[in-house]
Amino acid sequence: MNDRDNEADLAALEQRLKSRGGAEPSAELQSRIMRAVSAELTSSLPAHRRIGFISFAAAMAASLLLAVNLAVTLSSTLLFDARPTAARHQTLEDASAMQQLSPDLSRSEAIRFSLLLHAGEHLTPLPDLRSASPNQSTSDATSKNERNLQ
Amino acid sequence: MSYALFWAEALITALLWAATAIARCAHIRRRWLARLALFLLLFGPFALFGAAAVGTGALKFSADFPHTWFEYSLSLLLAYLLGMAILLWRGRDGSARATGAFDWPRGRLTVGLLTAAAVLTMTLWNMDLEVRSQAAGLRTEAGAMMLSISPAHVNDSRNGAIFYEKAFAKIAADNAAFHGDKSPSDSKMPDQEPAALELLKRHELTLKLLRKGAAMPEARFDHDYANPSIRMLLPEVGQARTAVRLLQLDARHEMAHGQVEAAVADVNTMFALQRAVSDEPLLISLMVSAGMNGVAIETLGEILPEVTKAGQITGLDLSDSPFGAHAMMRTFQGEEAFGLSLFSDLMSGRENMKELAGMMNEDGSKVQFVALGNTGVQVLVRVFLMPDDVAAYRELMADHQQSVSVPYFQMAARAEDFARIRHAGVITSAIVPAIHHAREIAARAQAMHADAEVALAMTHYRLVHGSFPATLDALVPDFLDEIPADPFDGKPLRLAHKGDDWIIYSIGPDAKDDDGAAYDQKAKTGDLSFVLKVRK
């Protein structure tokens, strides 16, 4: 089929449509449509649409709760502890040193001791409130003299 | 409460999973494929809960864990099975009360499932965070505990540790001379070895400093006990041990020149140094000091036969054993503080459980900790096992601390009880040092110390009466207040006479009287003895 054939068909179709008779819309149609639209816009939402909105609001609230919860959870994972951790090889080296110091210790025991001692480096620092004896300053001076003599 | 919430959320998530699976499988046209898919999907939660129930049941009934969550796991499994059965019944075709799973809202069920899964994950996450944040309290408690048992401050004018530290610095500067297979410091006859004599000459000032330190009434090493650094502790303990070997070498040198008083002074210095090390509230210090005690007693055994006048040994006082209940109590509290700190590190995520598992597997004996390498498993361990683990650790350490006043031979009978408690926690079993073994080492040192105390009294007896007594009872009350008890059976120490040897002995860890036979370290048989030789 070529363009010339199409043009002929279209012309025939146009001719047939012009020849069809039909009733004109009534004069009230426009006002009826306007009233219906106005009523639809001013009246409350139908029941199925209200439920849809409540579901949407509930989903939003649930999402908000989840998001807040997630935000709190994630922000709690921040670590503020800047102290270095002992490297594994250090722990094992120190375990070997302990075995040399106390040959009775088995390898696994020495590793446990080493782990514990390394953990001891992370104790929360606390003030030592047990004061020295009152004559500390004089004894310090004495001991300094002794040390100078060495 | 949060555990109950987690239980409920896990059940809801599993049931939503089941409902979604039933609804979606109802739309598969091929019946066999629908049934297969449904079986596989429903089997997932069942396998998960079933594995949890079996695992926790195994912990409860075979490993004797006190808190295993077995009831939680089992009830979750049963509730899931019940809920799944109801869903399957409601979802079947032609049900009287429903139109079947074909008409179930698949989209909504899927959204509900995803939401429930998210809530469940976050609940677990928050529980993990709570455990982590509470772990900080453990570290504070451990710090306070460590400070409470650290040695009291000592005025510098009374502190022998100042001199010890100077001596240690000199030893550290000459470290190579004290190590190696044929170190001159190990010489039994230093006067016949120029290297040993040279070593002694090089360390005259070191020896002088050590003696000065021993002459001081107290010794407290300047440690930050709130944060004791292993890098500082270990070299110091090692140098103290080397110092004792240097003193032994000097005592032998003095003996070779007939200087018994000087040799006795060296032994006294050894004991003073050993006491200073054992004052540290650490198990490793106590164990090393037990070794130093052994060197001092060995040296004393070489000196006592050469003693000819009471004045030569007047300064020796061995009545105060450094391995008694107080020292053990302090040491165990120190270990507990470090243990709590390690728990805190593990719970806060500061210490990696994978690293711990790796180190525990270093000797190939702790393969069960391999699972800790998995992040998910770590979270589950932290949330569900760690709190009870900490409780078990505390219970174990409290039990050990209460038992320090119990004689070793009575404590030995309770070894199984301690082993049971030790297995009450996964981490506890990994980090608790062999405290029973440490107590055995301390008891051996205590026995050797008591042997030496009796040997000293027998030497005094010999100087007065011209010969050793036939029985130890003859020493009481003039030379001893009472015969020390054997830590391994509670009875008085024994005496054996073989040729020229007078053997004072404890029956040792095997609790068998071998008539003073020498102790075999590897086999742990024989008696812990002090041999007094008759001077010819």
| SSE series of chain A | HHHHHH
Low-confidence stretches of chain A are 131-150
Mean pLDDT of chain B: 84
Give Rg of chain A in angstroms.
Answer: 46 Å
- How large, in whole angstroms, is the Cα Rg of chain B? 33 Å
In which range does the helix fraction of chain A lie?
55-70%
Averaged pLDDT of chain A: 72
End-to-end gap of chain B = 80 Å
Number of helices, counting only DSSP H or I runs of 4 residues or more of chain A? 6
Please describe the topology of this protein.
The complex is a heterodimer of chains A (150) and B (536).
Chain A: H1 3-19, H2 29-42, H3 47-76, H4 88-101, H5 107-120, H6 136-149
Helix pairs in contact in A: 4-5
Chain B: H1 2-25, H2 31-61, H3 70-91, H4 106-149, H5 161-173, H6 194-202, H7 204-215, H8 230-256, H9 260-278, H10 283-303, H11 325-347, H12 353-360, H13 375-402, H14 408-412, H15 415-422, H16 426-431, H17 435-465, E1 494-498, E2 501-506, E3 528-533
Helix pairs in contact in B: 1-2, 1-3, 1-4, 2-3, 4-11, 4-13, 5-7, 5-8, 7-9, 8-9, 8-10, 9-10, 10-17, 11-13
Give a structural overview.
- The complex is a heterodimer of chains A (150) and B (536).
- Chain A has 150 residues and is mainly α.
- Chain A is 69% helix and 0% strand.
- Chain A has 6 helices and no strands.
- The N and C termini of chain A lie far apart (120 Å).
- Chain B contains 17 helices and 3 strands.
- In chain B, helix 2 packs antiparallel against helix 3, helix 5 runs antiparallel to helix 7 and helix 7 packs across helix 9.
- Chain B has a 3-stranded antiparallel β-sheet.
- The N and C termini of chain B lie far apart (80 Å).
- The mean pLDDT of chain B is 84.
- Classes of the chains: A mainly alpha (150), B mainly alpha (536).
- The interface between A and B is large, with 57 and 74 residues.
